[in-house]
Write a structure and sequence with these properties.
CATH architecture of the largest domain in chain A: 3-Layer(aba) Sandwich
Number of strands of chain B: 10
Distance between the termini of chain A: 42 Å
Shape of chain B: elongated
Strand content of chain A: 15-25%
CATH class of the largest domain in chain A: Alpha Beta
Strand order of the largest sheet of chain B: 7-6-8-5-9
Largest interface: A-B, 28 and 21 residues
Number of helices of chain A: 10
Strand content of chain B: 5-15%
CATH superfamily of the largest domain in chain A: P-loop containing nucleotide triphosphate hydrolases
Oligomer: heterodimer
Order of helices and strands of chain A: EEEHEEHEHHHHEHEHEEHH
Strand order of the largest sheet of chain A: 6-7-8-3-9-10
Radius of gyration of chain B: 26 Å
Structural class of chain A: alpha/beta
Radius of gyration of chain A: 18 Å
Number of helices of chain B: 26
Number of domains of chain A: 2
Largest sheet of chain B: 5 strands, mixed
CATH topology of the largest domain in chain A: Rossmann fold
Chain lengths: ~250, ~525
C-alpha cells in the first residue's frame, strides 16, 4: 500500500482585492513530506486548506492520486484526509477516546473503538491511561499527540499539518517533530506541513516550498534550498533562520 | 434539554388544573347552559365589592359564577366584556360616556344614562342595567393641612395655587377627556408636576407628602381614613357617574334569570350605604365576601343565615395578628396562588424554550435573518407589561392563557439571544477542527456548538424565568390569578399585609427559581468545564 500523490495545478484564490494564491502549480509525490513556509499572509495556509476543501480555489485543480478534489463530496473528502489544526483543536467536551474515534465514528465504522486505541498507542498515549481523560487534563504536548492520533485513526494516508506546533515550548516541539518522523517511517504517509519555522521545515520535509504573497519563490530539497537559494527573499529567510538558531 | 428540567416544567404546566378555577379556555368547551356567569371588576375597592355583591346574588339564585376580580383598567375590563370573556362588571355612566364612547361631558344623570344605554346597545350589543342607586364621581383631594394653608374649598381655589403643587394622578385620569385635560381647560388647572400613580398608591403617596393633590372617587373609604379634604367641583365639570351593572350580549340575551337577579339590585345602594360598605373594606380590612354578604342580607336580597356578623368580626381582629400568623392562616389560598404563579411561569417558559431555542439554532445556520429576528424579539421586551397583557385580551379573553401568551412573548428574547450567541461563539478552534475532519454543518451544530453553548443557553432560560416570575405578578390585572392577586387587591384596599402576602412569596419564588436553574445550568455544562466559575 502506498500513499497517494497530490498535485496543485494553477491554483488561484482571492479574498476580495487580495490575491492569496496566484496560480500555484506544485506536485507532491506519494509518501513525500512537503513543507510550505512563508510569512503570515504568504498564502501557505490557504494552499494547504485547498486540499480538503476548507478553501475552494477560484481557479485551478487540486488532484489527489490523480482525481480532482473539487469533484469529490467535501464531507467524504475531509473524512479521508488527516488534519491537525493549530492548537490541536480537540473538542473540549469530549474525552480523549471519543475525540480520537471522531472520524471512524463519522464514517460509521464498527471498529471505531479499536482504531482509536491503536492510534493512541501509535502516538505514545495508551488508551488505558489516557482514553478517559478530558482534553484540559492533558499537557500541551499530549493534546497535540491526541490531535495527531485523531487525524490518523481513520487510516488516513494524507495528513495536513496546519502550523501544528507553533505554540509549544522547544522541547515538546522537538518531541512532536520526532513523532512525525517516526510515523512516516512506520506507515506510508503523504504529508503537507505549513510552518512559519524554516528550521522545522528543513528538519521534517523532503522538499520545501517557499511562498511569498501568493507566489512560489522556490521549491527544493532542504539541501539545495540552503546551497542554492533561488531569490534574495529565500536567502534572507535562510539567513534569519540561521541567526535565530545560533 | 435534560429530562429533569422538562419533567419539572411539565409538572408546573399541569398545575393549573389543581387551581380552583380552570382558566378562561375551559368554560367555552362546555355547553352554553352550563357556562358559569363570569363576574369581573376593575382593580379598586368599590369595584371589587360590587362584583362580589353581583356574584353572591347570582349564587343565591343557584346560578354558577366565575370571579375575575381586578381586571387592569377600563379598557381591559370593557374589552373583556365585549369579547365575551366576561359577562358582567360594575361600570359608571360617566366613564362609559367619556372613556368608552369618547363623547363630550354633558347633561344630567338621567340623560347621560339614557344616552350610554342607547349607544352601548347599538354599537357593542352591551347592556346597562338600571343604576344601582349611588353616584361615585371624581373627587380631587388634598391633605387637610394643605387645604388650611392655602384656604382651599373648590377646584377654582386649587387652580390659583396649583403651580406650587405636585399631583399624583391615575394614568388613565391623566389621559382621559373627563380627567386632567378637561380640568385644565375648565379651571385653568396647571400643576408644578404631574406623576402617574396607580389607583391604589395615590392616597398613601398623598398621606406621606410625596404628592399634594390626588384624584379619586367620592365614595372612597380612604378619604375618611386619611382625613382628606375633597374639593368641590364648583364649575360642574365632572359628569355624573352613576354606578350600574354592565352586561355582555350573551348574558343579556341568553340568561334571563341572571339578568332578573342582577336587576333586583337597581336603586338599592344609596351613597351613604356604599360609603359605609367601602369603609368596612378599605379601612376595616374586612373580607370583601363578608361585607358583600352583609350588604345583601341588610337589603333583604338574600336570606340571613345565623352567625353572619361573626365573619365580619374576625376580619376586624385580623389587624392585630402577627404577620407570620396571618400568612399561616392564608396558607391554603397562598399555596393555590403560588401554584398558579408557578404554572403561569412554567407553561410560558416551556413554550418560550420550545420556540426560541430551535429557532436560534436555525438562525445560526441562516445568519442573515438572525439579527432582524432577534431585534424583533427584543422589541417585544420594550412593550410595557400591562399593555402587552391587555393586547392579549381580544385574542385569548381574560384569565390564564392570555397571561401565558404575554409571558411567553417576554421569554423569547433572552432565550433566543443567549442561545444564538452561545452557538455562534462556541469555541472556534473546536468548531474549525470538527468541520475540517468531516462533520456536516448539522453535526457541528448538534455535537459541538450546542453542547458548548449549553451554559449560555441555560443562562438565557434563567433570565427569562426570573423576568416571568416578576411579570406574572401583573397578570392578576387580566384575571390570571397567581401571587399578583393579593398584591393587586392589597394595593386597591391599601392593605399592606395583603400586598406583602403576595410580594414576599413572589420574591422568594424568583430566588428559588433562579437558584434551581443555576443548578440545572451547572449540570448541563460540559463535564470538563463544570468546575470553572460562573462569569
Amino acid at each position: 500500500m502506498s500513499a497517494p500523490s497530490l498535485s496543485f495545478e494553477h491554483v488561484s484564490k482571492s479574498y476580495g482585492a487580495v490575491q492569496a494564491l496566484a496560480g500555484i502549480t506544485l506536485p507532491v509525490a506519494g509518501g513525500e513530506c512537503l513543507a510550505l513556509v512563508g510569512e503570515s499572509g504568504s498564502g501557505k495556509t490557504t494552499l494547504l486548506r485547498c486540499v480538503n476543501r476548507l478553501v475552494e480555489p477560484d481557479h485551478g485543480v487540486v488532484r489527489i492520486d490523480g482525481s480532482d478534489a473539487g469533484a469529490l463530496d467535501p464531507i467524504e473528502l475531509r473524512r479521508s484526509v488527516g488534519y491537525v489544526p493549530q492548537e490541536g483543536g480537540l473538542l473540549p467536551h469530549w474525552r480523549v477516546r471519543r475525540n480520537v474515534e471522531l472520524v471512524p465514528w463519522l464514517r460509521g465504522s464498527p471498529d471505531a473503538a479499536r482504531l482509536a486505541e491503536e492510534a493512541l498507542e501509535m502516538v505514545g498515549l495508551p488508551a488505558s491511561t489516557f482514553g478517559t481523560r478530558w482534553p484540559d487534563e492533558l499537557s500541551g504536548g499530549q493534546r497535540h499527540r491526541v490531535a495527531v492520533a485523531r487525524a490518523l485513526a481513520g487510516g488516513q494516508s494524507v495528513m495536513l499539518l496546519d502550523e501544528p506546533f507553533g505554540a509549544l515550548d522547544a522541547i515538546t516541539r522537538h518531541d512532536l517533530q520526532r513523532l512525525i518522523v517516526e510515523l512516516r517511517a512506520r506507515r506510508p504517509l503523504t504529508v503537507v506541513l505549513v510552518t512559519h519555522d524554516l528550521s522545522e521545515a528543513l528538519l521534517l520535509a523532503d522538499r520545501v516550498g517557499v511562498l511569498r504573497a501568493g507566489h512560489l519563490e522556490q521549491v527544493a530539497t532542504p539541501d539545495s534550498l540552503i546551497s542554492e537559494p533561488a531569490t534574495p527573499y529565500v536567502s534572507e529567510l535562510l539567513a534569519r533562520a540561521g541567526s535565530l538558531r545560533s | 434539554m435534560k429530562p429533569l428540567l422538562l419533567a419539572l416544567l411539565l409538572a408546573a404546566a399541569g398545575a393549573p388544573g389543581a387551581h380552583r378555577d380552570p382558566g378562561a379556555g375551559a368554560p367555552q368547551r362546555e355547553g352554553e347552559a352550563a357556562r358559569p356567569v363570569v363576574v369581573a371588576s376593575k382593580p379598586f375597592g368599590e369595584s371589587y365589592l360590587l362584583a362580589e355583591i353581583f356574584a353572591q346574588l347570582l349564587e343565591s339564585e343557584g346560578i354558577g359564577v366565575q370571579r375575575r376580580p381586578g381586571l387592569g383598567a377600563t379598557t381591559v375590563a370593557f374589552d373583556a366584556l365585549r369579547s365575551g370573556a366576561v359577562d358582567v362588571y360594575p361600570e359608571y355612566t360617566g366613564t362609559g360616556l367619556l372613556a368608552i364612547l369618547h363623547e363630550e361631558p354633558r347633561g344630567d344623570a338621567q340623560s347621560v344614562f339614557t344616552e350610554v344605554q342607547r349607544q352601548f346597545n347599538e354599537r357593542y350589543g352591551v347592556r346597562w342595567l338600571p343604576p344601582l342607586g349611588f353616584e361615585n364621581g371624581y373627587a380631587i383631594s388634598v391633605r387637610a393641612e394643605t387645604a388650611r394653608r392655602y384656604g382651599l374649598a373648590t377646584l377654582s381655589d386649587l387652580a390659583k395655587v396649583a403651580p406650587r403643587l405636585s399631583a399624583g394622578l391615575s394614568p388613565d385620569f391623566i389621559q382621559r377627556a373627563d380627567g386632567l385635560p378637561g380640568l385644565t381647560r375648565t379651571y385653568g388647572l396647571r400643576f408644578e408636576s404631574v406623576r402617574p400613580l396607580d389607583q391604589a398608591l395615590k392616597y398613601r403617596a398623598l398621606a406621606s407628602d410625596a404628592v399634594d393633590v390626588v384624584d379619586g372617587y367620592s365614595t372612597d373609604g380612604l378619604i375618611a381614613r386619611y382625613g382628606l379634604v375633597v374639593l368641590r367641583d364648583d364649575l360642574h365639570f365632572f359628569p355624573p357617574y352613576q354606578a350600574a351593572a354592565l352586561i355582555g350580549a350573551r348574558l343579556a340575551n341568553g340568561n334571563p334569570r341572571a339578568v332578573a337577579a342582577l336587576t333586583r339590585l337597581s336603586g338599592m345602594l344609596s351613597d351613604s350605604t356604599m360609603r359605609a360598605l367601602n369603609e368596612r373594606v378599605e379601612n376595616g380590612h374586612e373580607p370583601i365576601a363578608a361585607v358583600a354578604g352583609d350588604a345583601l342580607r341588610d337589603l333583604h336580597l338574600v336570606d340571613a343565615p345565623a352567625g353572619s356578623t361573626a365573619t365580619a368580626g374576625a376580619g376586624g381582629r385580623a389587624d392585630r395578628q402577627s404577620f407570620a400568623r396571618y400568612l399561616w392562616e392564608r396558607r391554603a389560598v397562598l399555596g393555590a396562588q403560588t401554584l398558579r404563579h408557578i404554572a403561569l411561569v412554567g407553561v410560558s417558559l416551556l413554550g418560550g424554550i420550545l420556540l426560541a431555542l430551535p429557532l436560534a439554532l436555525v438562525l445560526e445556520r441562516a445568519s442573515r435573518a438572525a439579527e432582524p429576528t432577534l431585534r424583533a424579539f427584543g422589541l417585544l421586551e420594550t412593550i410595557p407589561s400591562i399593555a402587552l397583557l391587555a393586547f392579549m385580551i381580544p385574542i385569548f379573553g381574560v384569565g390564564f392563557w392570555p397571561a401565558v401568551a404575554a409571558l411567553w412573548l417576554y421569554s423569547l428574547y433572552p432565550i433566543a439571544r443567549n442561545t444564538y450567541t452561545g452557538v455562534r461563539d462556541a469555541d472556534p478552534a473546536a468548531v474549525h477542527a470538527a468541520r475540517a475532519l468531516g462533520m456536516t454543518p448539522l453535526q457541528v451544530l448538534r455535537y459541538v456548538r450546542t453542547p458548548l453553548a449549553a451554559p449560555s443557553i441555560m443562562a438565557g432560560i434563567r433570565t427569562a424565568a426570573v423576568i416571568d416570575v416578576g411579570t406574572a405578578t401583573l397578570a392578576a390585572f387580566i384575571g390570571a390569578g397567581g401571587l399578583g392577586e393579593p398584591i393587586a387587591t392589597g394595593l386597591a384596599l391599601a392593605d399592606t399585609r395583603l400586598i406583602l402576602s403576595g410580594a414576599l412569596p413572589a420574591a422568594l419564588l424568583a430566588l428559588v427559581v433562579d437558584g434551581a436553574l443555576a443548578m440545572v445550568e451547572r449540570w448541563t455544562r460540559p463535564a470538563p468545564l463544570r468546575h470553572r466559575h460562573d462569569h
